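Review session, final week

We close the course with one last complete record, chosen because it touches almost every idea we covered. It is DNA metabolism protein, a protein from Pontibacter korlensis with 258 residues. Go through it on your own first, then we will talk.
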Amino acid sequence: MHLYTYDGSFEGLLTVVFEAFERKAWPTSIEQEHLAQPSMFGQTIPVLTDEEKANRVWQGLQKKLSVGAQQALYHTYLWEQPGFEQVIFDYIKLVFSSAENVEGNYAAPCVLQVTQAAKQVHREKHRMEAFVRFQKTADELYFATISPDFNVLPLIVHHFEKRYADQRWAIYDTLRRYGAFYDLHQVSLVHLELPVNQRRVSPAAETMHEEEDKYQQLWQVYFDNVNIPERKNPKLHLRHIPKRYWKYLSEKQPRQLK
């Protein structure tokens, strides 16, 4: 039994793949080093991230996989569900051990799992792009918080960089405690060291732009006017906008008493 530990990065996971092939010691488990529990009956192999080794693995995959399949592997990494590292390893091992293309081999559990995981992440990415709502602060920064089911922040920053290229903005993932900040030139990832029990991050009321409340109320009034009661279809509405996304939408927030 071989437990491989790594730093949690995608490059670190690819380094694990390189080390396992070099040792010919296939992992029975792959875990992030800060979460790993030492095994009494096997060997724990700590792996340090090596960009050169990671690049060699990735270049090998590029020769054997389509761009779509490469993206699916990365999306599976962002999926973050229990055991995702082993799924990725099994997929890569199958790729390198097969003479033929494995992308359509859904009889292999790892191929089916990667395909399904990638679809879930892709769907969450599009929903975040559609439902994120910014609030304007007093210093002209547009700020939004998200708490997606999967780690899609790296996938949505390009969308907002193009759409809001002329304004400074920040999107913060409250579950993973990191965010993206756009300064009119480039996007940078930022980390806040907060207590584990402090998940909610939002601008204080006194830091908000004086017009922000009016913008929120105008959006709510617009929504009320375009919403035709006779055409309400709650089931269809929930299918397109699941309830867990309502916290992002201005039109779903409690109306302020006048």
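Two points worth writing down before the exam:
The radius of gyration is 22 Å.
Residues 211-258 form one domain.
Good luck, everyone.
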